[in-house]
Structures are given as structure tokens and as C-alpha cells.
Amino acid sequence: GKRLAERIAVMSEFLKINDLLQKMTGTLPWGWQQRVALAAANLHQPQILFLDEPTGSVDPVSRRNFWDLIQALSRQGTTIFVTTHHLDEAEYCHRISIMVNGRMAVLDTPAAIKRSAGSASLHDAFVKLVDRGGQT
Q1: What does the pLDDT look like over 67-111, one tens digit per residue?
Q2: Are 92 and 70 in contact (CB under 8 A)?
Q3: How many CA atoms lie within 13 A of 58 on its CB side?
Q4: Quick one: pLDDT band at residue 19, thresholds 50, 70, 90?
Q5: How far is Cα of residue 89 from the mean position of the Cα atoms in its chain?
Q6: What average pLDDT is seen over the chain?
Q7: Is 7 exposed, middle or buried (0-12, 13-18, 19+ CB in 10 A)?
Q8: Do 15 and 22 touch, CB atoms closer than 8 A?
Q9: Which residues pair with 108 in a beta bridge?
Q10: β-strands 103-108, 96-100: how paired?
């Protein structure tokens, strides 16, 4: 009980959700619901955290704030796996895997993938991979 209360306090402060603790999650805007979900997922301080489309349907400012939080958790030692359709978000990751036709086409750093594809952006690199049928 005491440990849980401490973790709730830490995560609430970290995610800036102290004012929301007495509210029903379903009444909150989607971006705030995502923050509450991230706090709940981190209560037990997992070594690995899987986030499936964590910023889907979230406004651009909330997306950026959410990635700031993900990066902060990463700096604290949590390994985080994220799925996203937003290739600009993949730029925030240490390593990414791009899937083409249900298969992993490439696994590397964002910079290495762009360099290998001769592209200035991950979006352009992805398009080239798709055009080549996933062949690097």
C-alpha cells in the first residue's frame, strides 16, 4: 500500500496529472487518458514497456509532450518498444524496424536507415523500401 501510494505520487508528478487523480478516466480528453495509461503502466517500474500507437488520435502538442515523457522514461533506464505509423515519431527512437508487407525490411538507427536509403527523411526511406518491395 505504502509503496503503491509513493509510486502514484511519483508518476502523477512526473506526468503532471495530480489534478486528475479524483476524476474518472473516461471523462478526460484522449491525450490525458494516454498520460494516465502511461502512469498506470509505470507504477511497477517495468524494465520493458510496450506502447502500441500511444499517440494515435492525439493532437500535435500532446504528441510532442508524450514523446518527451517516453524519452524521459528511457533515460531513466526503461526499455520502450513503440509501434507507430508516424515516421517523424520514429526519429525519437534509438533503433527502429520498418515493416513492409508484413516483414521486417530493416532494423537500424534512424540515421543509418536514412543514410542507407539515400534519403533526407524516414518517410522518404520508407517509400523507397516499399517501392523496392522491402529489399534494402
Answers
A1: 888 898 899 999 999 999 889 899 999 999 998 888 999 999 999
A2: yes
A3: 23
A4: confident
A5: 8
A6: 89
A7: middle
A8: no
A9: 96
A10: antiparallel
Residue among 72, 116, 79 nearest 98 (CA): 116
Q: Which residues contact 125 (CB under 8 A, 6 or more apart)?
A: 98, 113, 114, 116, 117, 119
Cα-based torsion angle of the residue sequence 20, 25, 27, 30 in order, rounded to the nearest 10 degrees: 90
Write the secondary structure of the chain as one string of H (helix), E (strand) and C (coil). CHHHHHHHHHHHHHCCCHHHCCCCHHHCCHHHHHHHHHHHHCCCCCCEEEEECCCCCCCHHHHHHHHHHHHHHHHCCCEEEEECCCHHHHCCCCCEEEEECCEEEEEECHHHHHHHHCCCCHHHHHHHHHHCCCCC
Residues recorded for the chain: 136
- Its pTM stands at 0.78
**Which pLDDT score is estimated for 121?**
93
Residue 125 is placed in which grid cell? 526511406
Q: Quickly tell me which residue has 517500474 as its cell.
A: 45
